[in-house]
Fold this sequence. Notes:
Strand order of the largest sheet: 4-3-5-6
Largest sheet: 4 strands, mixed
Amino acid sequence: MTLTAASSAQALASFAAGQSWAEIPAPVRHQARRALVNIFATAIAGCREPAVEIALGVMAPFAGPATCSLIGRGERRDAALAAFVNAMAANIHDFDDTHPETIIHPTAPVAPALLALAEIRPCSGADLLRAFLIGAETACRIGNAVAPSHYARGWHITSTCGAFGASAGAAALLGLDARQTVWALANASVQAAGLVETLGTMSKSISVGNAARNGLLSALLAERGFEGPPGALDAFLRLTSDAPRPDALTGRLGTEWTFATNTCKPYPVGVVLNPVIDASLQIAAASGFRAAEVEAVHLAGHPLLGARADRPDVVTGRESQVSAQHAIAIVWRRGRAGLDEFDDAAVAETLAAGRPRVEFTDEPSRDPASVHMTVRMRGGGVFEAEIAAARGTLANPLSDRELEQKLTGLAARAGFTGDAEALARAVWGLEDAPDAGALARLAAG
């Protein structure tokens, strides 16, 4: 069937309004819990970053009643501001989950909107998980429909598609019918924004925060009868993609879950650098390797690697998260790749010590999660590493235990005053929880 403008939005709306918890496969449910464990880790790690502090300082005087929790901070703010701030914190280090087909970080814009809503509209844990999966699936489906030209045009796909995901998830949690959900999606369409140009700066976090807040407001407006046209979603597809594919948005919706391919990061870098870090760690452990004796590094990888990560002269921590030169240098110096390896001090360290000369060869047939690293030494020796599937990919995923360790480790680093292990247990058992709002309060610390 050829989908019309109306049928694309209506199919999503029918999915959001009619998808039952019982019909969602167990592996997909588990993927939702994994994503939430991961997002609490990254939000706690980012909750006191300067951009978050500035945003709170500017926006708090305009806030309403303090009804909702701020992850990792112990403070409370109104639902809209809580959604905004928690989404900022969750994504600010680019350490959150990634949908590999689109490079969307789906949980950061969707989960904070629903956590805030759960505190002002009591619901069960199963209700929250159902709404989260509907929202995340919506964001990823729309991403599939506009990729890859959407990102290439300069749109920050997490922010743009995330606004739709947050609106669909909030509509599902509010129990809106299909007609109201169409309105919610239309309301989100006029607020879906974000630019790739802002990556590596504070400005990027505005659009991620807005995606959560605007998605929540879109659904709340629709609940009150705030109407929007069914063709708004199709207009978004046409305007932001060279070749939109509505079939990718609606095909087998509700029976096949694109969110099932979601992945969680082992390192706080752009996903194209994950195999590079794996290779760097492997070579660093090789007998006889001395980083000071490296002549040059050659990387054979997917074209996205060179396009996004050939940045030899970065000077800030944010920029370093997409610099192959810094990533290799800091891993060889410290033997690890955590948040502390991608901050301003680490960048200053590699600038002072020197970064390796890195050459790139594009191999279009390669998976973006793979790389071949060749290291030429000044004395003529060569070290090589082939990474077929980087850690954190579908073929080599982080285990549930590793996600728990990510949460407890980042919580300890951030000085989290709550019980991170109890928070992880609460997420794993969320399906049986009578009050989903308690999860947000536990995450506040």
